Amino acid sequence: MGYPNILKNQLTCKQGAVRTIRFNFDGNYCMTGGSDKSIKLWNPFKSSLLKTYMGHGYEVLDVQSSADSSHIASGGMDKSIFYWDVSTAQIVRKFRGHAGYVNAIKFNEESTVILSASVDNTVCGWDCRSKSREPIQVLRDAKDSVTSLSVSDYEILTGSLDCCIRRYDMRKGLLCQDNLSSSVNCVNFTKDGQCVLASCLDNTLRLTDKEGGEVRSEHTGHKNER
């Protein structure tokens, strides 16, 4: 399989700097978050803007769709998490508890809980169904900004600028931690769930064994330059 090399479409977002772009669960739509505090919902195949969501006080840094595409969660530099109704563009819930920017947002698999990762070194869980504005759980193990999140049916994976990836087994209440010797800015489970792929600020992608933590392979080529 070759690398993609044909531009299929282009969206003119008019949101200032585009800080995040995500497809919805089935890949039919995408969402963009910008420095102008807005979120926009698009049909990327027709380059058509479907709806705009306004409410954040500062730049939007991440956005995520629920599994049934009925709701959107977003977070940003205003330290807040917004839970939106897609069809009405109204805010259903607003959660505030972080002491710093919200870097990353994820739903759990049932889309009943929003997970947020922050510059304040924490990951918070928020119950979408409850009227409570307090987090139902706070993970405080990182020693620096938590930059990235990935979620499976029973695991939470985080990457942090403290050079560590952390995997929380929510069934057993266990934490597994691996140090990659470089700040981590993005993490994901592989499709088979056996490995973790992490991108690091030393220009390296590292594929690690999920259970043992051993680095299976390293991939270089990117250049982190100014």
TrEMBL record:
A UniProt-annotated Pfam family: WD40
- Protein name (Swiss-Prot/TrEMBL): WD repeat domain-containing protein 83
Q: Tell me the Gene Ontology biological-process terms attached to this UniProt entry.
A: mRNA splicing, via spliceosome
Record's subcellular location: Cytoplasm
SMART domains linked: WD40
Gene Ontology CC terms: catalytic step 2 spliceosome; cytoplasm
Keyword annotations for this protein, in alphabetical order, are: Cytoplasm, WD repeat
Start and end residues of the WD repeats are 11-52, 53-94, 95-127
Q: Which family does it belong to?
A: Belongs to the WD repeat MORG1 family.
| Xref: InterPro entries | WD40/YVTN_repeat-like_dom_sf, WD40_repeat_dom_sf, WD40_rpt, WD_repeat_MORG1
Coiled-coil residues are none
